[in-house]
Input
Amino acid sequence: MHSQITLLVALLIGSLGIVVLCAFWLTRPRKPAPQLRRPAATQAKRPAAAPVHQAAAIPARPPAELAPQQFLAQQLSAPPDHPPKGPRSASYAAVTTLLTPAEQSFLAVLREAAPDHMMICPQVRLANLVHPTARNRKQNQYDFYRIQAKCVDFVLCDTATTAPRLVIELDDRSHDRPDRQARDAFVDSTLGEVGMPILHVRWQRSYDAQQIREAIRVKLNMRTQPVAAASVAAAGAPVAGGWLTPIAAEVREVGAVVAVRCRSCLRDMPQGVAFCPACGARSS
Output
């Protein structure tokens, strides 16, 4: 019995000692942790802290003696609170002309050949002539991206309503490249889907305004005055009752104007392509 009491007292004393040590450890004074300093070279490379921008000051209310119009004029004439710092370089430059020399020479002839009730609009975006109709948003954006960066050379528009009536493309040697032919096929098929006629004119050093005028009338299905049989035969259209009438010919050539028509869908397509871009039929 005496030994058990002694053991119990020893355990109590040991537990009390452990509690005292823990309390002493938790309440001991702590030293601040040493701060590590970087070398001077490293400190020099660190960028300076960006200044904190102050919030824009709330404009003061107009004084009672100033009218609202006078107060607004005073605020607009005051210099800005934060003018731009440093010189600002110009990012753009003015374009001297919209057309190339070849397009300018053709435009002079086109002014003589175009009908009186139509005006000539150069460098018109394809997105200004057609617009996507897909209900799917992604498909609509995809269709718009395909037409937003493409332009046609000239568009004949109604003077009274500015409605586009005929697209005219001046084809130079660059249109013989495969990428340009693919672009022309896409433009022709897109305009064909909306029923917009297009006339391709091959570039040359001089043009016959009368021949281009007749080609425009054929494209627009307009009636014209009687012409000589030789000029009509050269244009590839028959004379019916003394009037020039358009026909669904396979190939029609009017001087510098060349148009190839598909046998299946009777739509114009670029010369030299193997398949029609509108219906997919073989061209030959």
The chain is about 35% helix and 15% strand.
